[in-house]
Amino acid sequence: MEKRVMTDSKRRRGLVAASALLSGVLLLTACNDGDKSADGGSNSNGDKTSQAQVDQAAAEKTSQARITISPKNGAINASINNDAKVTVTDGTLTQVTMTSAEGKTIKGEMSADAKSWQPTEQLERATTYKIAATAKDAEGREAHENASFTTVSKANSFIGNFTPEDGSTVGVGMPVSITFNKPITNRKAVQSGIEVTSSSGQEVVGHWFHSQRLDFRPDQYWAEGSTVTLKLKLDGVEGSDGVFGVQQKTVTFKIGRNQVSTVDVNAKTMTIQRNGKTIKTIPISAGSPENPTYNGQMVISEKFKETRMNGATVGFTDDDGKGEYDIKDVPHAMRLSTSGTFIHGNYWGSDSVFGNVNTSHGCVGLNDVKGAGDPNQPAAWFYDNSLIGDVVIVKNSKDKTIKPDNGLNGWNLSWADWKAGSAL
User: Which residues form the L,D-TPase catalytic domain (predicted)?
Assistant: First the structure.
């Protein structure tokens, strides 16, 4: 009897274990049931829904519109002109908002087909901007995208200050001169981003004087009456390691009549020719034998009805360090060089000086009156009949030829030497 009881007990324990194992299998099967509907239950027909069907149902609720914001989120050194843009595929844009870190809203324009948006105002340097965009697909389902980027800083960007001014009329000798605010090491890339053309069809070539100055001119003087166009396409151009251009601008200026004036230091006269014909000869007083005037082709770069001339600013000082001269009201002054050569009116010299004696510190003087108020004076006539960009040629002086980078005087280089200074 004792043995039988033990056998029944073992049998009961085996049945319990089997039952527990079966229950576990059933429970495991329920937890891994792949045939449940998307809401965890069965559909109305009692059929189970597969995971693939669940994913498909979710996808059908998502907009097909795909928004792209440029620059990418988190970008730095972004352009202030061209980089910012929002586009969409498989849908249309319904709203785009762009704001600066200070909360200023940036104006923009949507394309006619609502496929793209761009700001219509130039961005600021070293500024963080945020863009929020919304689009809808053909079914009216919305998509959203957000991005933030930072524009290039002043430390990481360069600009070029150019002359002449947009819309101006200048003489035939006026080069396009660009001075960069930072040294340029990648000259080829920068020069490739600048285009200068003339309506005359003249070939125009750039010449680097140094790492921060690039001038453009044709072989001969510009054709009178032509139009010159300067295109600065420097936005995003890397001028040196980590330093990018930010300018995108088109400038046009007109070339006036062809006026070239020749100063003969020996003869002490200046002959003015317009379109190849002599229109006037004026007596002058050039630099003294101790301070001769430069020879060469010089271009008028600035005009002042009256200006101060202090010898101390150009190296003419006495034993006390004061300027050998300091005239606060020099009339009808026009700059010919950076170093201080001018052609100007002279009221302090006697009338007999002009045409007879060279007395200046290197400038070319014409008879004039104090106050620049007499239009009949030779200096006044020449001032009124001269344009920035007109050429003044000085010859027969005992001084050397002016350096081509001393002012806008690149015409003193041969065409071969000029082209040799191009990076292209």
Answer: 259-395
